[in-house]
Amino acid sequence: MHAPQPITAATGEAGEDRALRYLQARGLAVVSRNYRCKGGEIDLVMRDAADALVFVEVRARVARSTQRFGGAAASVTPAKQRRLIAAAEDFLARQVEDVPACRFDVIAIDGARIEWMRDAFGVDA
Fold this sequence. Notes:
By secondary structure, the chain is α+β, with helices and mostly antiparallel strands. It has helices at residues 7-25, 63-69, 78-95; strands at 29-37, 40-47, 53-61, 102-110, 113-121. The chain has a 5-stranded mixed sheet. A hairpin with a 5-residue loop joins strand 2 (40-47) and strand 3. Mean pLDDT is 85; it is low at 1-7. One of its GO terms (molecular function) is nucleic acid binding.
């Protein structure tokens, strides 16, 4: 018998599942999920129709916490962006021979609302 997950972990996992389905419905293909390295973690690595790698950060908030702490997108701070960039660099070094075009997207889930921010930030973050 497994212990129940904390609400934040369950919310995050459900958000990642929703984001994955949302992106797949829009033509993106999954390359990797929950890529972890010493520098950080990437929720989703996808490939778009132009064959670019898309590193996706999923931020999910339950509706009642959205107003109190800011929206899901507001939680992708410059420090979080630097960790995502470091993890993406690690992924590229370990997983990809020829580096394709890449971008960083954010999927913000606030309650029932999903917002997809393409090119949310760059490596100069």
